[in-house]
Structures are given as C-alpha cells and as structure tokens.
C-alpha cells in the first residue's frame, strides 16, 4: 500500500497529473499541492495492450525540459566486449588481476570498486581463480558479467530486484532464437560449469538475459550497458520526441526534444533514427521483439525523404519503393513505370553495397566521393547509405591531417570543396531535423561543421566586403549555430569527445562574438 505524502498513513489516491505521489485524502492532496506542483512529474505511467507500460505527458512539456533523471540500477560491460576493467570499464591486457577472484582489472585502485563486488563474490566458488587469456578482442567470458550483477540484486538489494523484475523480458519470443542458445552456452553453462555458481535457476538467468537485451541502454563511449528503473518505460518511436544523455556518473537524463503536449506519449529511439525502415525493423524485431508500426514505418517514402528508396533501372524518373507496405514488402515497385523487383533481389543488392560501404576507410575522401558518384543512378539522393557517406564527408572535408593522403585544412580547402562541405552539411541537417527533431547530438555536430565553412567563407572575403550587412549576417549565423551546438554538446558527459567539442565551440563562439563587436 502507498503512504500519504503528507501524513504517512495508508494512501488510496494518487495525484491525478503524475499518478506517482499518493495521498490518504482529498484534503491532504489539496494541502500538499503548493509543495508538489514544482516537483509534480511531467509524465505519468500508463499501460496498453500494444505497448505494455509507457509514459505520457501529464502536462504540456516545453522543449528542453528535463523530464527524467534516472540513476542506474545496474551497470556492466556490454554483452559483446573485449576484456575491460570490471571497475572502470577501460580495456585491460591482463597485467593486473583481482587478488580475490582473478578477473582482470586495470590496477589495485579498481579492486575495491563496488561495481565489481557481485562477480567477485560469485566467482569465488571456484577452486582456483578466474583466468582470462584472450585480450584485445571480443571475449565471450564477459557475457556473464552484467547478468551476474543483475542476479546479485536478488539477495542483496530488494528494491532494485523488485524494479528489475517488473521489466519486460519477452521470454516466450526469445526461447526459439539463436540468442537464447548463445545465452545457454555463454551465460547459463559458463556460470554453472566454470564459475560454479549454482544459486540461480536456468529460467531465472534466461529471464535476466532477456531483461538486459530488451531494456539495456548502451552508454556511448566506454563500452557500458546500463539498466534504469524508470527510463526503461520509454516506448520506441522512429521519430522520437526526447533526447537522452548520460552524466559522468552514468545517470541517464531524458529531455524533451520538442514541445510534448499533455497526453502525448513520451518516446525515445531504440535504433538509429538515420537508418532505413528495413534496418530499424530488423533491429527492433531481433532485440526488442516487436514490429514498429509508427507513421514513418508505414510510409514507403519515409515521410517524403525516400531514405530507403532505390532509383528505377527501367525508366529514368521513377523511384522503387517497397509494396504494398514497408512492413511486409511483397515486391519493390517503381512509382513511375511500375516495373518491379523481388524483395530478395533488393536485399541482395543492398547487402553487397553495404559491404562496400564498410570498406570505405576513414579519411578516404576520394573513395567516399566515388561511392556517391557510383550509387547516384541506383539509390535515391537521400538513401541512408548515401546520407551516411555524406555525413562522414561533411566532417572530413577541411579536417586536415589524414593518414595516407595529406588532407588540406579548412583554410587551404579549394573553394568548390568548401561549398561541397557546406552543401553536405545542409543536406544531412535537413534529414537529422526530420528524424531526430529538436536539439539532437547529430544536429549539433552538423551545425559545428556548417559554421566552420561559413566562417571560412567570411575569412576569404576581400577586406572591403568583410563589414557589409550581408557578411556580418554570415558571422551572426555562425554565432547562433555555435551557441546552439555548444549548449547541446555540453550536456554530454565529460567522458565523451562531444562534450569537449562543446567546450571548443564555446571558445570559438567567443572569438566570433569579438570579431562581430569589432566590425560594428
Ligand atoms: C524497454 S521496454 C518498454 C517498457 C515496456 N512496455 C514495459 O511494460 O515494461 C521495451 C518493450 O516495450 C514494447 N514497446 C516499446 N515501444 C513499442 C512500440 N513502438 N510498439 C510496440 N511495442 C513497443 C515492446 O514490447 C518492447 O520490447
């Protein structure tokens, strides 16, 4: 039974807005409103047959508002990882191991790290210490660590275990999959046979593996997976209305990316919003066990962008789209001449192109441009493969350095390539704003590149044109883009490169502002 937020007595009513704070009577609720209104959660938890539990806005939420800050219930290495320190997650090479259990650590400093406690205790049933031999490559021994940290809650943290146990595991769907088989070998059998951990039933271990897959958040950068008791309730949408960041303590912060009106569902993206429909669906069905049927997924044109469309090889104008629906394409058909291609043929073609794309090396400007040229007659202009390459090029042009070929710095970039960089930024930005609306990380990265090209154009102007209204406006735009980019990027954790780019953007903003002040 809940207890009343005012007197602590048994409470049978809840705040009608957030559905979280409880009261014993209407009087106590009224009395508490003055204090509660500032903290009344902007979301409430609802439930439907199609979604299970989900969050909806309990009032209008303005863009940028923090909806939720959630501390991790469990942090552990991702399932597929090379050996990392089980205290701080940095890669390890075996030079130091925990003196109690034998799992490699980065050094004695991490031996007392409380994160390492579960597997350290649970690995001590062995007659000898754990031995890891395979470093600097994926090592299956680590697949058991995050499950062990979850299972540890059962006997050591009752509220944490209760929160974890409420999470969706999709056990029924998982049972017939390869993932279940792999979990049986690498987690269940490994725990029993190698670690000699016998305190958990097989079914319980599988359920935890399901909970990790369905609810885990990958923390960008340091190879960590986190489970969060509240944020796990966020539903997926292919055009989400929130953005998420992690602070340096791995707390998850969810902000409204756009205004979310009262009653609207609050969503995040479980995939990369810049992927095409088939790839997003594949990820969702194989790791989250549901088919997304949002407006974007149901629209063969992906909201008019043609992110997944091909160009017709039979006629010169048409685009080839999945038909009758992207969720169940029987064929791919040209929207001009109606010529069709089998789904298998399209998948095979995209698979081969995808393999080529993976081979494009970082800093290979020429090869990336050739990829765009060679695919221009086969893929739609915005196709996700092309957009991926355009994004890479937008960031590469003017970066300088480079490994094999020396790439020019921005100041030495020929005029046509400076223009090319600017156009690429604008093209990808349009897609990013549509699929990750609001203040997304991708928008910030693109604004940073865009302002760099625009400032460089200003720098190249002859002296007499540097102080016209038009050229001052160029710098004014740069200042606005830098301000927005630095604000977005500095919300990231200082553990991430993006945060440091945010600091750099702020410094550059100061430079632009002082140039503008001198010009006026
Ligand atoms: C991280 S959990 C979200 C919370 C979950 N609904 C619950 O009740 O615990 C992810 C699961 O929610 C459901 N879900 C989330 N977004 C969905 C969507 N757009 N369409 C259908 N199901 C969705 C799926 O079952 C998915 O595996």
Automatic annotation (TrEMBL):
The keyword Metal-binding applies. Pfam families: SET, zf-MYND. InterPro entries: SET_dom, SET_dom_sf, SET_SmydA-8, Znf_MYND. GO terms for molecular function: N-methyltransferase activity; protein methyltransferase activity; S-adenosylmethionine-dependent methyltransferase activity; zinc ion binding. Residues 41-271 form the SET domain. Keywords: Metal-binding, Zinc, Zinc-finger. Residues 4-40 form the MYND-type domain. It comes from the Eukaryota. The keyword Zinc applies. This is SET domain-containing protein SmydA-8, isoform A. It comes from Chionoecetes opilio.
């Amino acid at each position: 039974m809940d207890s009343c937020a005012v007197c602590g007595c048994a409470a049978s009513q809840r705040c009608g807005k957030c559905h979280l704070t409880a009261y014993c009577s209407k009087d106590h609720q009224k009395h508490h409103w003055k204090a509660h209104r500032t903290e009344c959660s902007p979301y409430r938890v609802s439930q439907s047959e199609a979604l299970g539990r989900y969050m909806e806005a309990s009032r209008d939420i303005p863009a940028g508002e923090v909806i939720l800050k959630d501390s991790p219930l469990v942090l552990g290495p991702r399932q597929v990882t090379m050996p990392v320190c089980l205290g701080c997650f940095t890669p390890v090479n075996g030079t130091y191991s925990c003196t109690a259990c034998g799992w490699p650590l980065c050094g004695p400093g991490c031996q007392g790290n409380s994160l390492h406690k579960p597997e350290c205790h649970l690995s001590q049933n062995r007659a000898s210490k754990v031995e890891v031999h395979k470093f600097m490559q994926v090592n299956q021994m680590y697949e058991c660590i995050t499950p062990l940290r979850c299972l540890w809650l059962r006997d050591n943290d009752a509220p944490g275990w209760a929160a974890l146990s409420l999470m969706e595991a999709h056990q029924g769907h998982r049972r017939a999959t390869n993932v279940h088989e792999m979990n049986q070998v690498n987690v269940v059998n490994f725990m029993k046979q190698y670690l000699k951990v016998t305190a958990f039933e097989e079914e319980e271990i599988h359920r935890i593996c399901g909970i990790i897959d369905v609810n885990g958040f990958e923390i960008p950068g340091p190879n960590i997976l986190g489970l969060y008791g509240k944020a796990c309730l966020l539903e997926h949408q292919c055009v989400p209305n929130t953005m998420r960041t992690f602070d340096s303590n791995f707390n998850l912060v969810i902000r409204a990316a756009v205004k979310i009106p009262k009653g609207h569902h609050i969503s995040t993206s479980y995939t990369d919003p810049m992927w095409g429909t088939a790839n997003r669906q594949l990820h969702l069905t194989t790791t989250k066990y549901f088919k997304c049927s949002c407006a974007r997924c149901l629209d063969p044109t992906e909201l008019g962008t043609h992110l997944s469309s091909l160009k017709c090889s039979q006629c010169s104008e048409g685009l080839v789209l999945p038909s009758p629906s992207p969720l169940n394409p029987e064929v791919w058909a040209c929207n001009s001449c109606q010529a069709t291609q089998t789904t298998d043929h399209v998948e095979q073609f995209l698979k081969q192109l995808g393999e080529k794309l993976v081979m494009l090396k970082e800093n290979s400007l020429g090869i990336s441009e050739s990829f765009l040229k060679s695919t221009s007659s086969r893929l739609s202009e915005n196709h996700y493969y092309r957009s991926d390459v355009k994004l890479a090029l937008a960031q590469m042009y003017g970066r300088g350095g480079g490994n094999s070929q020396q790439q020019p710095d921005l100041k030495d970039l020929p005029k046509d390539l400076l223009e090319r960089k600017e156009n690429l930024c604008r093209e990808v930005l349009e897609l990013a704003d549509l699929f990750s609306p609001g203040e997304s990380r991708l928008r910030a990265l693109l604004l940073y590149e865009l302002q760099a090209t625009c400032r460089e154009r200003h720098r190249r102007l002859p002296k007499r044109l540097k102080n016209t209204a038009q050229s001052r406006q160029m710098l004014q735009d740069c200042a606005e883009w830098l301000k927005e980019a630095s604000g977005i990027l500095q919300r990231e954790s200082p553990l991430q490169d993006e945060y440091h780019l945010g600091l750099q953007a702020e410094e550059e903003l100061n430079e632009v502002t002082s140039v503008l002040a001198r010009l006026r």
